[in-house]
Amino acid sequence: ASHISSSFLGPKGVINDWRKFKLESEDRDSSSLSKKEILRQMSSPHRCHSKGDKDTRERFCRKMSVQEYELIHDEQEDERCLQKYRKRCMQDMHQRLSFGPKYGYLCELQNGEEFLEAVEKERKTTTVIVHIYEDGIKGCDALNNSLTCLAAEYATVKFCKIKASNTGAGDRFSNEVLPTLLVYKGGELLSNFISISEQFNEEFFAVDVESFLNEYGLLPEKELPALGNGNTDEPDVE
Question: Domain boundaries in the chain?
């Protein structure tokens, strides 16, 4: 989907998501006293003094002091949990709004209907690059190999290929114009490169196709590998 559902952004959705995140983040012994029970005991100190046995009374009071210590630090734990939650939400929103969906592979389109769907049903910010090819045509195999490599490096770009005979408009794509590369965004044709292999040497590779597309500003900035191991315990940079 190209939109964020209202259940994600709505107040109830945010509250429920936060509660779920907090419960999943808590790692407490199931046998420990609940907060309400601890607070009730703390508000009734006479229970401690009502014990006749001195050792029992001391053990009970020591337990109370430990529980009280945990309660004092509970707010700090909540704050740390909230920071993790905020960081995760920011990462989710960054993924949804900035980068959009990820692909990472060269998709084979089987017919004209899939071709139209790939071009017209993508979000307006997604670049769709379609290679029209046929088996046995010079340059088509090399271009498919190059696009396979580029698809892995530019995961936010949707790379597709389709045989001219499967487009339903094979008469428009004679062998003389293959390989053809079509570039779309928001359902609109940005560039149309016919016989594109003529732009390269007899042998060409992904770096050659990458440089050619970059000359026309058709590729986004290459994504850098994520640093670190995704540890969310590091403090946020405000």
Answer: 10-95, 106-216
Q: Is the distance from CB of 180 to CB of 194 less than 8 angstroms? A: yes
> Strand, helix or coil at 236?
coil
- On whether the CB atoms of residues 118 and 130 are closer than 8 A, the answer is yes
Q: How do residues 75-125 score in pLDDT, each as one tens digit?
A: 667 777 788 878 877 776 665 555 567 889 999 999 999 999 999 988 888
- Type of residue numbered 90: M
- Least Cα distance to 134 among 180, 169, 168 occurs for 180
* Residues 119, 101: Cα–Cα separation, whole Å: 14
**DSSP state letters, 128-185:** EEEEEE-TT-TTHHHHHHHHHHHHHH-TTSEEEEEEGGGTT-GGGS-GGG-SEEEEEE
Check: CB of residue 60 under 8 Å from CB of residue 48.
yes
Q: Which CATH architecture has domain 106-216?
A: 3-Layer(aba) Sandwich (3.40)
At 237 the pLDDT is 46
Q: How far is CA 179 from the centre of its chain?
A: 33
CA–CA distance, 185 with 48 (Å, rounded to integer): 72
pLDDT on residue 15: 66
67 vs 62, 74, 75, CA distance in Å? 9, 10, 13
Report how far residue 99's alpha carbon sits from residue 97's, in angstroms, rounded to the nearest whole number.
6
